[in-house]
Here is the input.
Amino acid sequence: MTRVSVTVDGVSYQDEVEPRLLLVHYLRERLGKVGTVVGCDTSNCGACTVLLDGRSVKSCSVLAVQVTDRTITTIEGLAAEDGTLHPVQQAFHDNHALQCGFCTPGMVLAACDLLSENADPSEDEIREGIEGNLCRCTGYQNIVRAVQAAASEGRASSASTGATTGVTS
Ligand code: FES
Ligand code: FES
Here is the structure.
């Protein structure tokens, strides 16, 4: 067993884990973060995407022991404590960017990563930014619209606050 010490959605955890335990299974089975879902377990679908130190990663392609001393945000840590949705979550809701919802946690987090790097992405850049995430319901058009809306919202709030970063919660 190996010790892992990690912050997930603002809470610190210390656990003993099997060295082969995948991060996605650690999140779901040890921490109960079942909003992080498994679509393929082979790094293809992106459903298991989380933010690792702010960058999107497929948590089925990372070992739990690799995240020690690092910070993870799952879909369950995006909304504010009072339940207010993160702007990207709200944009997905407003633009009907989910059907069955299975891909949605990964799509939202991939979009957060994209917008943190590029606050004003073109449609092509959005499609490229989420290309590692598959939607089996094929709802890509509204997903792209949602990311465009979140980007627009982020620019508007940055302009009103004088901030220079992309969308934040
Ligand atoms: S479950 Fe991780 S990429 Fe599909
Ligand atoms: S909404 Fe069903 S997989 Fe994307």
User: Anything to note?
Assistant: The CA atoms of residues 12 and 100 lie 32 Å apart.
